[in-house]
TrEMBL record:
InterPro entries given in the database record: Put_HupE_UreJ (IPR032809)
Species this chain originates from: Portibacter lacus
Source organism superkingdom: Bacteria
UniProt KW keywords: Membrane, Transmembrane, Transmembrane helix
Transmembrane feature ranges: 20-36, 43-62, 74-92, 104-122, 134-158, 170-189
Name of protein: HupE / UreJ protein
Listed Pfam families: HupE_UreJ_2
Amino acid sequence: MSDFSLYLQLGLEHIADFAAYDHMIFIISLCAIFLIKDWRKVLILVTAFTIGHSITLALSVLDLINIDKDLIETLIPITILITSIINIVLVMKKKSSQGIILHYALALFFGLIHGMGFANYLKSLLGGMQSVTMPLLAFNIGIELGQIGIVIVYFLIYDIIRRITNLQHKFWVIIVSSITALISLSLILGI
């Protein structure tokens, strides 16, 4: 297996690791407000998140920034909580389509925070490698592919539940966002 394939696989595995489920919960909270027909918007949203975390991941791996791991581990669930609350507010005000720019900006900004969370993991893998460009690229592509996989699974589940229950989208957003908010609160409080 080439180094590129190895780091691609590690990126995929990292985002899909149920032990690090906060990443999955964040992607779900990003998706919650969207309909299946909005899949292009969601892909752009996930890519904005990837761009954000790629920036801080690179800066952190190159030791250009160094932020306390405990602070980052607290900020990550806060990003989930904020996203979940925004989803609920927008859907209650019937302005979910107007919040797309806000969601893109938040995904990019929150990606910066999540990237620092990925950095410790990737730093431990890279050790003393001379060139980190290829591993960083492969790892980020793996994360992006993993996130797209999470989006696909999310929308498949959403579609099945919607067909079975005939649940209105507004209520789906409230339910999913409430669940992601509660999970993030438990992470923040260490419960």
